[in-house]
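Q: What changes when FE2/S2 (inorganic) cluster is included in the input?
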Amino acid sequence: MSGTVVCRLDELVDGAARRFEVDGRAVAVVRIGGAVYAIGDRCSHADVPLSTGEVHCDTLEIECERHGSAFSLVTGAPNTLPATQPVPVFTAAVVGGDVVVEVAP
Ligand code: FES
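A: The predicted holo structure follows.
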């Protein structure tokens, strides 16, 4: 895949998120085991980063620390209120131990 190498997989804490700038966009990259997910690092409810929120590994969600909306790491949809609008998700993969994120134009 094309995209940007943001770090090595072993530099990410399992079950947590970390913020990166990719092509000018703030992206929260989440590691769950050997899988990675990339979601826009801004809650759709207010201007709050999602990367500081708690990751729910069992349901593949990240929870906004401000008011608790849980966003799907797969679709970006808010699964709980108060947020009602989705957050963009991006393609992320591990390639040769590198974490690669592709931000759609
Ligand atoms: S700011 Fe994220 S749920 Fe309110």
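Observations recorded in class: The mean pLDDT is 97.
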